[in-house]
Amino acid sequence: MYTIALPPNSNLIVKANDKVVADATTVVLHDTAAVAAKVTASNTGANVMLAKLIEDKQVWEINAYKASNDQLYALLQRCFEFYVDMTVNRDVASEYRGAVNATLKDQGYRLSDSAHMITKIVKCIFGADRRRVSAYSIALRAAFAAKVSAKDLPAYIREQGGVEELRLSQSPNAMTPKRKAEAAVQTIANSVLGSVKMKGISTQLDAAKMGCQHVLIVTQEADGAFTINALVSASSAVNAALAAFHTQQKPKAEAKAAEQRITIASVKRNQLIDEAAAVAVPQ
Predict the structure, then answer these.
(1) 3-state class (DSSP) for residue 23
(2) Mean pLDDT over residues 178-201, rounded?
(3) What's the rounded Cα separation, in Å, for the pair 100 and 150?
(4) 72 within domain boundaries
(5) 121 and 18 share a domain?
(6) Is there a single domain that holds both residue 34 and residue 84?
(7) Could you tell me if 97 and 117 are in contact, meaning their C-beta atoms sit under 8 angstroms apart?
(8) pLDDT tens-digit profile of 222-262?
(9) Helices (DSSP H) in 146-207: which residue ranges?
(10) Which one of 1, 17, 63, 235 is most buried, by most CB atoms within 10 A?
């Protein structure tokens, strides 16, 4: 197990594409510097190469990934504005609807007449990838239902955790990590695997968080014991662990539900057999 300590109160600012990148970017770059410092400690060729890869990967996360999402949200914003214009002006709606249908026909795509106009617009722009078209359409329809303006759409998508989180939040059969965590809290409410009280842990606790969940990082030993390595109280880590627990328990819950359905069906069948036999027996 390795622990990387970030330098406190650092004010590093770098330039990317002639623009100043700070705030969250600065934190990531601090992390990069710390990791790179660890890796290059021995100053071997391989370590230098790894340090460079780590640095380049972080730069990619800061610039390329963020830029990619920004460009996507800008495209979705224009699709959304196209649709919103159709909802406020009848003449515009007729013209735009004809253009959308003509474009779909030229592209060789067939959508049912009942398909939502937002789906048709997204299909025109993003093409044959059905899953992507579905996700973007659901996200835009959710924004419209929430009365989000076209100007505020990118901020709204970010606030909701991105397109995929927004899509999942609108699906009755899908669960976002947040909903999984909430469900897991209910599942473990009466579940106790054991109890531990140690001075090393107690000194790290915030007394005001009594009753709250925490995450213990443990290492399994050969004799079946667990060595406690760290205590994590950050809500993001706790929610991630709860969501993972929910996913892990899902097959067991489904199997138990299936067994219950079989049991209920068996009981009902036996009742029907008993009732039929009672009717058949002469009084």
Answers:
(1) coil
(2) 76
(3) 19
(4) yes
(5) yes
(6) yes
(7) yes
(8) 888 888 888 888 888 888 888 787 777 766 656 666 677 77
(9) 153-159, 163-170, 177-188, 199-202
(10) 63
